[in-house]
Amino acid sequence: MLRKCALITGASGDIGRSIARTLSNNGYDLFLCAFKNEIDVKGLKTQVTQLRFDVSSAKQVQEAFDQLARKGVKFDLVVCNAGVAENEAMLIDKSDEEIDFVIKTNLSGTIYCNKYVLPLMNKGSSLINIASFLGVYGGSCEAVYSAAKAGVIGLTKALAKECAPLHVRVNCISPGFIDTKMNASFDETDRQLILENTPLKKFGTGDNVAQAVLYLAENDFVTGENLIVSGGLTV
To answer: Is the backbone of residue 167 left (phi > 0), alpha (psi -120 to 50) or beta?
Structure first.
């Protein structure tokens, strides 16, 4: 029996690594994508191919997926996980350059990857976008990030309707506070406040997100949904 094949963008980050490990443990061969940072492939049990491209560049995304198409690569699962955080500040204090960077990476990058990977997806496959609970609830001093992730959720819901006749399911995961290097900028006071406001009284892990990916990948009657993985935190 042929193993399933999955592609993960943002594979060099903590959440990306957790998703890769979980999928590999469940028999998926992997295409792991990153732009500049090193991808950790230690401990992965299945075949791994690494790709380098900038998701914010439509040209680079198209070229990467065109190259895969020429090789006849097909995917059973695609996880669009690439993204960047936003420095906390009032919107009026944001530079236009930072606004453009956050939008182009988090929203435009997800749109580009969705667009160009769809022709490479098998019948019955699953496309999962990683958004954020801030895209649902909004975050003070993170207006641009919240807007970008809200856009990813809207993209997911619309694309699920477009792709249903193609037998491709499209879903979204919105993590809450996940204990990763990207969130290491929070000081101890902020971390304690987040913990106090989280009903489950603990921080999330990359594995919590990875388990949600596996659920959406393998449940063939779920599409157009946004699964919030936040421990109950609503900001």
So the answer is: left
CATH number, domain of 36, equals 3.40.50.720
Judged by DSSP in three states, 197 sits in helix
Domains identified in the chain, total number: 1
Q: Considering the domain boundaries, does residue 59 fall inside one?
A: yes
> Does residue 56 fall inside a structural domain?
yes
**Dihedral sign from CA coordinates of 17, 130, 190, 206:** negative
- pTM, two decimal places: 0.96
**For 47-81, how does the pLDDT look when each residue is reduced to its tens digit (9 = 90+)?**
999 999 999 999 999 999 999 999 999 999 999 99
- Is 215 labeled as catalytic in the residue annotation? no
Interval 73-113: pLDDT, tens: 999 999 999 999 988 999 999 999 999 999 999 999 999 99
The residue annotated as part of the active site, out of 28, 112, 116, 145, is: 145
Digit-coded pLDDT (tens) for 189-199: 888 999 999 99
Whether residue 235 is contained in a domain is answered as no
49 within a domain of the structure (yes/no): yes
Q: Residue 107: in which H helix or E strand, if any? A: none
Task: Give the domain range for residue 19.
Answer: 5-229
